[in-house]
Design goal:
- The structure holds 2 protein chains of 2 kinds.
- Chain A is mainly α.
- Chain A is built from 12 helices and no strands.
- In chain A, α1 runs antiparallel to α2.
- By secondary structure, chain B is mainly α.
- Chain B contains 13 helices and no strands.
- Chain B is globular.
- The two termini of chain B are 32 Å apart.
- The chains are: A mainly alpha, B mainly alpha.
C-alpha cells in the first residue's frame, strides 16, 4: 500500500512537471498537457510489470551461494525456467501493485481512456512483449554474475539506461539530438514507451513488430549467453 | 567525536583497499544520479523554462538536492538501511553499547562508494552557479549555495530518522522510505511552485525538502522578496533535527525486539 502511494507521488510530481511545460494543445507535437498526464499515469502503472523487477532476477545470489549449479542441473532449461518463475512474480505485481495504483490514479487525476477498442486489444500483446523484453534485459544483467560474481555496476548501468530511454519520465523521441532519434528504436523503448503509445493511439500498430523483433533478438541472445554460461559455472564458497 | 572521526578515517582507508572497486563504484553512483539531472536537462532543452526557472537555475536546485542526498548516503548509510536492524533484531546489539544508539548507527558504516553521487551534485551545482553568475546573480550566491547541501543533508537525515523511528512500531520501512525520502528528493529537482497546493504544503511543512534549495534560491535569484528565506534551510535543519531526535527517543522506548 505504501509502495503504491509512493509510486503515485512520483507520478504526481511528473504530472505537475509536464503540466508546467507542455502546451495545452498543439498541432506540432502530440505531447500536450492531457497526453502527458496520460503517459505518466500509464508509465507509473506499467512500470510495475516492466521496470520494477528484482535486480538480476536474483541470479547473482544463486552464483554467490553456489545454488546456480543445482538450478542449471535441473531437467528444465535454465532460461525458460527463470522466465516462467519471474512471470509469476510479474503477475503478482500486476494484480497487487499496478491495479491498485491504476485505481488510485483513476480517482485522483483520472485514468486515460484508450484511443479505441482495437487499441485496447493491441495493448495487451504490447504490454506482454514489453514485460518479456524487460525480463530478458534484467536476465542478461543477472547472468553476467557468472563472469563478474556481482552485478552492482551492470545493474546501475541497466537502471540508468532504463530510466532515460524507456520513455517513462520523458517521451523517448523528445530526448535531445541523436538520442531522441535512436531511443525509440532501443529495446528499452519496447518495455514502456511503445505499449503506452499503442494504448493512447500515438503510434501505428507496426510498432508491435519492432517489439517482436527485439523479443526474438533478445531471446536468441539470452539462449546463447546461457549456453556459454553453462560451460563456465564456478561455485562460490564450499 | 574523536572516536567518530577515527572510525570515519578507518572506513575510508578500508574502502581504498579495493581501489578499482572504489573508483568504478564512485563513477557508477555519480552516473546514476546524473541521469536524474539529464532527464531534467532534456526537458529544459525542449521547453526552456520550468515554472519560470531556466536550466542554470534548475541546476542549482538539482545540484544542491543531489549533493545533500549523496552526503546523507555516505554519512548516514545505516540510518537509510535501518530496516534490516529491526527485522533481524540486530538493533539489540546496539542497545548494549556504551554509546547512544543513533551515534552507534552513524559510526557503523560510511558508504564512501556514494562519493560519486555527492560529487555529481556539487558539479551540477557548480554548472548552475557559473550560469547564474554570468547572468548577473549576486556574488554571494556562490559561497551561500555551497552551504545548502550541508543544511540539506541535516534536513534529509532528520526525515530519515523520523522514518526509522516509525520503524520501531511497524518494522518494515524500506517502502515508507521511498515515500518520505526518494520521492521528495525527486521533487527537489524542480521549482516547488509548479506543484499543486497540497504537494507544496507537503514538501514545505511535512517533508520539508523545498526548504533545502527552492525557498532560499527564490530570494537569491530575485524571484521572492523576503531575505529571511536565506535563513530557512538552517532554521529548518535545526528544528527538524530536534524533532527527529525526539521521535527517535520516543520510538526507541517502544522498541520490542523481534527476538533471536
Amino acid at each position: 500500500m505504501i509502495n503504491n502511494v509512493a509510486s503515485a507521488l512520483f507520478g504526481f510530481i511528473y504530472i505537475a512537471l509536464w503540466q508546467a511545460v507542455a502546451p495545452a494543445s498543439s498541432t506540432s507535437t502530440p505531447y500536450t498537457k492531457a497526453t502527458m498526464t496520460g503517459l505518466i499515469v500509464l508509465a507509473q502503472v506499467l512500470a510495475w510489470v516492466a521496470t520494477f523487477l528484482p535486480a538480476g532476477l536474483g541470479i547473482q545470489n544463486m552464483v554467490r551461494t553456489g545454488s546456480i549449479a543445482l538450478e542449471m542441473a535441473r531437467p528444465v532449461p535454465f532460461f525458460p525456467m527463470i522466465m516462467v518463475r519471474e512471470a509469476g512474480s510479474v503477475w503478482y505485481q500486476a494484480v497487487f501493485r499496478a491495479l491498485p495504483l491504476a485505481v488510485l490514479f483513476a480517482v485522483t487525476v483520472g485514468f486515460p481512456a484508450p484511443a479505441s477498442f482495437i487499441r485496447l486489444l493491441l495493448t495487451a500483446p504490447s504490454v506482454l512483449l514489453g514485460s518479456y523484453t524487460a525480463l530478458m534485459l534484467v536476465y542478461l544483467v543477472g547472468i553476467s554474475a557468472l563472469w563478474t560474481t556481482e552485478i552492482r555496476w551492470a545493474h546501475s548501468l541497466y537502471y540508468t539506461c532504463a530510466t532515460l530511454l524507456s520513455g517513462g519520465w520523458i517521451p523517448a523521441d523528445l530526448l535531445p539530438g541523436w538520442l531522441g532519434k535512436v531511443a525509440p528504436y532501443s529495446p528499452f523503448a519496447s518495455t514502456l514507451f511503445h505499449p503506452m503509445r499503442i494504448y493512447l493511439g500515438l503510434v501505428g500498430p507496426w510498432v508491435i513488430l519492432l517489439q517482436v523483433g527485439w523479443a526474438v533478438v533478445l531471446t536468441l541472445v539470452c539462449l546463447a549467453v546461457t549456453r556459454k554460461a553453462m560451460t563456465r559455472v564456478s561455485i562460490q564458497g564450499g | 567525536m574523536a572516536l567518530y572521526l577515527r572510525l570515519l578515517r578507518a572506513s575510508f582507508r578500508a574502502r581504498l583497499q579495493y581501489k578499482w572497486d572504489f573508483l568504478v563504484n564512485t563513477l557508477m553512483n555519480g552516473l546514476l544520479m546524473a541521469v536524474d539531472f539529464l532527464t531534467v536537462a532534456a526537458i529544459v532543452f525542449r521547453y526552456p523554462m520550468i515554472g519560470g526557472w531556466n536550466l542554470y537555475e534548475i541546476a542549482l536546485l538539482a545540484g544542491a538536492g543531489g549533493a545533500a542526498y549523496g552526503l546523507v548516503r555516505i554519512f548516514a548509510a545505516e540510518l537509510y538501511n535501518f530496516e534490516k536492524y529491526l527485522v533481524t533484531g540486530e538493533f539489540d546489539g546496539l542497545l548494549v553499547r556504551p554509546w547512544p544508539t543513533l551515534l552507534a548507527l552513524l559510526a557503523r558504516n560510511f558508504d564512501f562508494g556514494r562519493l560519486g553521487a555527492a560529487l555529481q551534485g556539487y558539479v551540477i551545482l557548480g554548472i548552475g552557479l557559473k550560469g547564474v553568475l554570468a547572468a548577473g546573480a549576486p556574488w554571494w550566491i556562490l559561497p551561500y549555495a555551497l552551504t545548502l547541501p550541508l543544511a540539506g543533508a541535516v534536513i534529509m537525515s532528520a526525515i530519515i530518522i523520523v522514518t526509522d523511528a516509525i520503524g520501531f512500531f511497524i518494522i518494515r520501512i524500506d517502502e515508507l522510505m521511498i515515500f518520505t525520502v526518494n520521492a521528495p528528493m525527486t521533487a527537489t529537482n524542480y521549482p516547488t511552485s509548479i506543484f499543486p497546493a497540497w504537494m507544496r504544503r507537503l514538501l514545505t511543512g511535512v517533508l520539508p525538502v523545498a526548504t533545502i534549495a527552492y525557498l532560499p534560491l527564490s530570494y537569491a535569484l530575485g524571484k521572492a522578496s523576503s531575505p529571511l528565506l536565506l535563513l530557512v534551510p538552517f532554521g529548518t535543519a535545526a528544528v527538524a533535527l530536534l524533532i527527529s531526535l525526539g521521535a527517535w527517543r520516543w520510538g526507541e522506548r517502544h522498541y520490542q525486539s523481534t527476538g533471536n
